[in-house]
Design goal:
The structure is a homodimer.
Chain A (H helix, E strand, L loop, with lengths): L2 H29 L6 H19 L4 H9 L5 H18 L3 H23 L3 H26 L3 H9 L5 H27 L12 H14 L7 E5 L5 E4 L2 E6 L7 H18 L16 H16 L2 H15 L5 H8 L16 H17 L7 H13 L26 H21 L2 H6 L3 H11 L9 H9 L6 H12 L2
Parallel strand pairs in A: 1-3
Antiparallel strand pairs in A: 2-3
Helix pairs in contact in A: 1-2, 1-3, 3-4, 5-6, 6-7, 8-14, 8-20, 9-10, 9-12, 10-11, 11-16, 12-13, 14-15, 16-20
EC number (chains A, B): 3.4.17.19
Pfam families (chains A, B): Peptidase_M32
Function (chains A, B): Broad specificity carboxypetidase that releases amino acids sequentially from the C-terminus, including neutral, aromatic, polar and basic residues.
């Protein structure tokens, strides 16, 4: 008999039902809700979040988890129990007063930041960020006490279970070593190429029709999801009803389409999570890095590959009534140029933005960097990584992202972890199925998705992160696959 | 001190936060959700409903309500406590097993009905309806024991607090007596008029633009609400974010527009509920009949009045690129014709459909009518009220509505109560502000809405139903105002 396990399973199913409404509330707020609804929504969301937190910190859970561990469980059930334990531990890590204090400070910081950033107002922003950082350090200390990890590692672990900063140092080292020179070489090579810009305007209805056709091509199930518009693209909803968004500009269409392809990667992961574990902790996506690996596999490995651009060029031309060549689209998709802003960065320079933030977070957490010294640190890192001086430009420097205003440290590495996982997954897939370019040209995309479904999507959180990647690729995460991918695509090496 | 009252108030605010998601889930399901999301949604909605039910039946509530009654409360607080007591009593009225059995039987009956109705399959439908009716009788017996009311009156009281079937008999008597002859006279009068049909097609985008412009004219606040499409028009959402829907046909536009005007009446009531009592039982709409009075005031008293049709004719023509005259629109808006289907009925014949259902419900509840005898009863009532024989036509007879399949008896009278309240409110408003036709022609709609806001919307559930109508109109509900309105509009009397 496994009575305690069954009671826990039922409890977590109920939690997932409340989380269903939390996901719906978030999606609706970003896509549908009129401004006047925000006060009522935020009150309701706060009550819901409190209720879910209460369910995850119920005092009987610890005893039930211990008792369930002595019951006769299948391997799946054991994995689920492990993830339940992790969820309960995470929920219990912080005292309520700290959660409330951090929520309040983050809200104040983010709200003021929206104006301060526009005015490059570092002096106004600094004390707010200092207040948030002080609470983040407190959070990390509490989590460190609960987990035995180092303070910064506990923050990483929230998003990428199992990763440590020592391991990230190792994985990131080759990128840090090779990227600056690689970028210079790519820039030199691209300097000789010249093509005219793509002439717009591009009607939004046509862009949306292209997006839907690409989603279909990428196997998105519209019976189990939607495409809408929001000011920041995201993939939300619940596994049986996955809702992704993009944003359109009439002047430029690649951004919206790459956004759709990116979010479709997230969406297929969610749609492909194991049905038998739906609502259970082990049935959820493994980590932020793995999630990002799916979106970046779709966007970068697949979406920006020459064969895929060949395939979608007629679709784009048909809806836009244009006659762009695949070479033109490829040209504009693949420009590499160091810039100030992370979210605007290309595939090659993007990791530099993450390496900088990772170093800053480590130093902010261990106290070797103060908030006051952050702008100088930023400028010196940007200089050495991308050859850009950011002195005095706070708005496009350390004030550009929302993450730190919210006290979310430890999240940034996920972006580059995702790019590295994606490149490594592609290499493993190609070992088994043959070159991705060939699979695309031979209309064998279903095999590509089948491989991802088998090795990643259907695995949910059954395995640990490292175990998942080992099982899928035969080895632990390595930064070399991303470097090889970039050299092959941008230098023909 | 009023500690118990404050604890109750806080508890009901929390309940309203969960009800926020229940409203959002309903709206989303009808307008946005892909089919594949329905299983996950219905599981989540069931958990949420159970949680809300649990909060309303918490064992400490009765003691707190008793204790609060001894505290020093304002008149508003006393009204709120009275409504809390009513909500708790309603939630506790039925044993959980009965609620579950009824939900199950209703689900089975409704699901099968969707097909059975298409095939006029009375024999298949009958046993399912009998099962539902048996449980409705059980429900009524439980409610009667808890309230001291008669079984059918307890069902009426769910939707129209304070009403009884004896009182409805009195109010409906003049309608039953006068309507059949009135309909004949209107039909005779209209027989001499002839106009060609309005030539379509009418593009849906243009109809939607008209709808939005009419909503604005009717004072709908788009900062606090939305207009969308669903297969059955409704008004949902929450007071700060009221979401109404309509449905469009390219062949005919009056249906969609009258639907928008109707739902805007519901919406303005919701948007105008007392802000100070938001989330509290006394801050909610008073009853289904009062709610329907607002939608019917907007649709029938206002929307179908000659001055209003004059005002909106240019708007309609501008969007549709037509040159209809107000007389043409009025002609097509005001045809009176007895028909089989309640939801298609005009203002004059509609009450007959309700009188029939009210008689049937009374008889089904007191046992004098069996489900088996329902079709004969239906046909004989349709004959005497509308001169229509429905023998053998179950699909367009007693199988036409969803209400009974769901076990919702007691709801139907609300529709005609609403029409009667609306006519009576108009008469009282005209005593103070002058003829509605003049107010419309003089662009004084804001005064009309101001009057409704003062007397109905801002009152929420502070007063009882009868008290509310007495305060607004100087007397209790009377059926005479509706009859006078119909005679004036359709016979010029």
């Amino acid at each position: 008999m496994s009575n305690h396990y069954l009671a826990l399973k039922q409890h977590f199913t109920q939690i997932s039902h409340f989380e269903h409404f939390s996901a719906l509330g978030d999606w609706d707020q970003a896509t549908m809700m009129p401004m006047g609804g925000s006060e009522g929504r935020s009150d309701a969301m706060a009550t819901l979040a409190g209720h879910i937190h209460g369910m995850k910190t119920a005092s009987w859970l610890a005893d039930f988890i211990d008792a369930a561990a002595t019951e006769s469980l299948t391997a799946l059930e054991q994995a689920n129990l492990r993830e339940m334990k992790r969820a309960v531990m995470q929920a219990n890590a912080l005292p309520t007063e700290l959660v409330e204090a951090k929520t309040k400070a983050a809200y104040r910081c983010e709200n003021a930041w929206r104006e301060q950033r526009k005015h490059n107002d570092w002096q106004g922003f600094k004390p707010n960020l200092e207040a948030v950082m002080a609470l983040v350090r407190e959070e990390a200390a509490h989590r460190a006490a609960a987990t035995g990890l180092s303070p910064y590692d506990t923050l990483l672990d929230k998003f990428e279970p199992g990763i440590t900063s020592a391991r990230l140092d190792d994985i990131f080292r080759p990128l840090r070593g090779e990227l600056p020179d690689l970028i210079r070489r790519v820039r030199d090579r691209q300097a000789s190429e010249q093509m005219a810009p793509l002439e717009g305007p591009f009607p939004i209805a046509a862009q949306e029709a292209i997006g839907r056709e690409l989603m279909q091509l990428l196997g998105f199930d519209f019976n189990q999801g939607r495409l809408d518009v929001s000011s920041h693209p995201f993939c939300g909803g619940v596994p049986g009803d996955v809702r992704l968004t993009t944003r359109y500009s009439e002047q430029e269409f690649a951004g919206a389409l790459l956004g759709v392809i990116h979010e479709t990667g997230h969406a297929r992961y969610e749609q492909g999570l194991p049905l038998a574990l739906r609502g259970q902790p082990a049935g959820a996506a493994r980590s932020m890095g793995i999630h990002e690996s799916q979106s970046l596999f779709f966007e970068m490995q697949l979406g920006e590959s020459p064969a895929f651009i060949d395939k979608i060029t007629p679709i784009i031309n048909r809806h836009l009534h244009k006659s762009f060549s695949a070479a033109e689209l490829t040209y504009h998709y693949s420009r590499v140029k160091p810039g100030l802003i992370r979210v605007d960065a290309d595939e090659v320079t993007y990791p530099c933005h993450i390496l900088l933030r990772f170093e800053a977070e480590k130093a902010l957490l261990d106290g070797s960097l103060s908030v006051a010294d952050l702008p100088d640190f930023w400028s010196s890192q940007m200089s050495s990584l991308l050859g850009i001086n950011t002195d005095g430009d706070y708005r496009n420097g350390c004030m550009q992202d929302i993450h730190w205003t919210l006290g979310e440290l430890g999240y940034f590495p996920s972006y580059t972890l995702g790019a590295m996982y994606a490149a490594q997954l592609r290499a493993a897939m190609e070992q088994q199925l043959g070159p991705l370019e060939e699979l695309i040209r031979q209309n064998r995309l279903a095999e590509v998705f089948g491989w991802l479904e088998t090795h990643i999507w259907s695995q949910g959180s059954i395995k640990g992160t490292d175990q998942l990647i080992q099982a899928a690729t035969g080895e632990s995460l390595s930064g070399q696959y991303l470097l090889s991918h970039l050299k092959r695509r941008y230098l023909g090496e």
